[in-house]
């Protein structure tokens, strides 16, 4: 006898400084596509994508910030009821890592207590080939990312929306942390 696998819906929000690649990560995950000179997202962006995690199907309902990152503080309605969040920074932009700390703090203060948060250092393709040379584009080390994640109890990945590196892995790792629907 076979059983239909259960589907769990998960509201996931994206946070992070403008141009770190939030929309590009979603485009890669949802459509397996990448655009070199993406127009900024304007207005609400809402997409869904299913993902198999073990014997379960997770249906992600993904909310992109759509330019709201320009404001000091996001409207709490944006992350109210979110079960998951991606806090994204650009590993070539230190200011975006400082901003990521800010978002993690804000989520811990304002979001649901059992939200699953992944810290994501994006644009790995820009540093993948350099061997710690002085002219490396990398400005945030993997150790710094890991340390913040450990401190705050977050999942951690370095990704590239451009090369696909670790993009699916982020969503699978989040899915495996989401409890079974009752
Ligand atoms: P958002 O404002 O955070 O949603 O950022 P976008 O997704 O609009 O991306 C901003 C710019 O960075 C665009 O020109 C993208 O093509 C580029 N970009 C996004 N992800 C990557 C990546 O992984 N590697 C590289 N090299 N560029 C990226």
From TrEMBL:
User: InterPro entries, from UniProt?
Assistant: P-loop_NTPase (IPR027417), Small_GTP-bd (IPR005225), Small_GTPase (IPR001806)
According to UniProt, the name of this protein is Vacuolar protein sorting-associated protein 21
Q: What are the top taxonomic ranks of the organism?
A: Eukaryota, Fungi, Dikarya, Ascomycota, Saccharomycotina
CDD domains in the cross-refs? Rab5_related
Organism of derivation: Australozyma saopauloensis
Q: Which domain of life is it from?
A: Eukaryota
**What terms describe the molecular function in GO for this protein?**
GTP binding; GTPase activity
The record's Pfam families line, in alphabetical order, gives: Ras (PF00071)
Residue ranges the record marks as coiled coil: none
Keywords linked to the UniProt accession: Nucleotide-binding
What are the boundaries of the signal sequence? none
